[in-house]
Amino acid sequence: MGAAARNRRPDAPGALAAFARFVLCGGGVGLGSSFTVAALAAWMPWALANALVTVASTLLATELHARFTFGAGRRATWRQHAQSAGSAAAGYAVTCVAMLVLHQLDSGPGALLIQAVYLSASALTGVARFAVLRLVVFARTRSQGAPAPVRPVAVPLPAAGAATAVGPSDLCRIA
User: Which residue in 15, 42, 61, 66 has a CA-CA distance of 20 to 30 Å to 78?
Assistant: First the structure.
């Protein structure tokens, strides 16, 4: 058993369950964000709409991930929000670059193509974001504190020059 598995609380979901929850929560927020960005972009520059939606959706998703996705069952801390914001900033940059490239390749893309590119870029960053959130932001080993001290165990030694056979029951008693 690895150190990460030993340090994880028993109620923390495994990687597959956490990823399924991440897709449900993060994907749901992302899908809603996609439509919200499209609606806001009708009234303001797209980059500004994307920035506003990224901030709001990151706050919401971080809370959902803290409470549900990674099994913490409590509100996200300020440290978790700050770290999550860093990964969201990278996601914002990727979606902006994807949209910039799209508009360089097609001067008048339709709404369906815009949504497909935005959601594809979001999905790509989502996989990387899952890894960052699971391994860094919501890692169990940080909240566990320092490891328990190792207690010394007295091991009886045979007298000098005495040949003593040690059996399995002796080893278990010693350990």
Answer: 15
Spatial separation of the C-alpha atoms in residues 26 and 12, rounded to whole Å: 18
Among the listed residues 36, 13, 11, the one whose alpha carbon sits nearest the alpha carbon of residue 24: 13
The 10s digit of each residue's pLDDT in 128-164 is: 989 998 898 888 644 444 444 445 545 555 555 555 5
What is the three-class DSSP state of 146? coil
Give the phi and the psi of residue 29 in degrees, each rounded to 5: -65, -40
Report whether 158 contacts 120 (CB < 8 A): no
Q: Are 33 and 60 in contact (CB under 8 A)?
A: no
Structure tokens that stand for 112 in this block: 């369906």
pLDDT, one tens digit per residue, over 48-61 is: 998 899 899 989 99
> Rounded to an integer, what distance in angstroms lies between the CA atom of residue 19 and that of residue 38?
27
What is the identity of the amino acid at 166? V
Contact status, residue 133 vs residue 65, Cβ threshold 8 Å: yes
